[in-house]
UniProtKB/TrEMBL annotation:
GO molecular function: carbohydrate binding
Protein name according to UniProt: Uncharacterized protein
InterPro entries: GH-type_carb-bd (IPR014718)
Length: 294
């Protein structure tokens, strides 16, 4: 068995080839969800989309391709505990609070990972994250990833089996480029509404519903966008015009925030959902990614 087979789960359709890292094998940090950590997406054996957060080993927080995060700004139970006590990070495990400082998603925390059961067939994999009670917080999470034709679907189901309500947020950090082409004038990011950013990075030109890049960025860029609340079905699409290839993400949930992050080699549209689950209740949502040529 190859090293890739030891560390990854492969899904195939007639057009897509997907690799998903086994929980803890490629990424074992305290920021991202360990389940559904997608490191490779190839369309028609020709177009690749997943890139690392940083091209310099050891820099960044270890993101790669499609990796989601819970609680970037609302850590569950963090303010209730003392240093050296634990708090839950959904999809990851029980994290240890090191000191009296505020939670910061980019910091590295000691992780006691949640137990995960995995079932798979040719085009679908299911991650069942078992609940572990932590100060009254406990969530059973099921994440189902499937491929069909040129579409990748991620379904989330969270059941609150604890005694306290779960209030946090989730988004997917989409570390994308097309065939490793640098971010620059060949890319355009489109939304179904005028973007209306709070601030526009110098490297961007924004007109109506489109974001373009004036040149290859020399450093990280970030902006939040407005206008999405008027949209019934939210989506964004990233096009690389020189190779006439694109990605479209449909968000089948109520949007709470939209942001765009990127740097020299990657752009990441980020669509947020508020997670609010009373004890005994369940919350479900779906993300669909379409990879295409035009």
């Amino acid at each position: 068995m190859s090293n890739t087979e030891n560390t990854h789960i492969n899904l195939e359709s007639n057009r897509l080839s997907i690799q998903i890292a086994h929980p803890g094998s490629v990424y074992n940090g305290s920021r991202f969800d360990w389940t559904g950590f997608i490191t490779k997406i190839v369309l028609d054996n020709k177009y690749s989309f997943c890139v690392p957060e940083s091209e310099i080993p050891g820099q960044g927080s270890g993101g790669f391709g499609l990796c989601n995060e819970f609680g970037i700004s609302t850590p569950i139970g963090y303010d209730e505990i003392k240093p050296q006590e634990k708090f839950p990070k959904l999809g990851t495990g029980l994290l240890t609070r090191p000191d009296e400082s505020d939670y910061f998603f980019f910091d590295k925390y000691e992780v006691d990972p949640f137990p995960v059961r995995i079932s798979k067939d040719f085009d679908t994999v299911v991650f069942n994250v078992e609940p572990v009670d932590c100060n009254g917080y406990a969530v059973k999470m099921t994440k189902t990833i499937s491929v069909k034709d040129n579409v990748l679907t991620i379904d989330y189901r969270l059941e609150n089996v604890g005694s306290k309500p779960i209030k946090t947020e989730e988004y997917c950090h989409n570390f994308f480029s097309v065939n490793n082409n640098r971010i620059g004038s060949g890319y355009v990011l489109k939304f179904p509404y005028d973007v209306n950013p709070k601030e526009t990075p110098d490297v961007m030109t924004i007109k109506g519903n489109e974001i373009r890049w004036n040149s290859v960025p020399k450093e990280d860029f970030y902006c939040q966008t407005e206008g999405f609340k008027a949209v019934q079905q939210h989506y964004w699409e990233l096009l690389y015009e020189p190779e006439r290839t694109g990605i479209r993400e449909y968000s089948e949930f109520e949007i709470s925030k939209v942001a765009v992050w990127g740097t020299t080699h990657v752009v990441s549209p980020e669509v947020f959902i508020n997670v609010d689950i009373a004890p005994g209740a369940t919350q479900e949502w779906r993300r669909k990614y379409e990879f295409f040529t035009f």
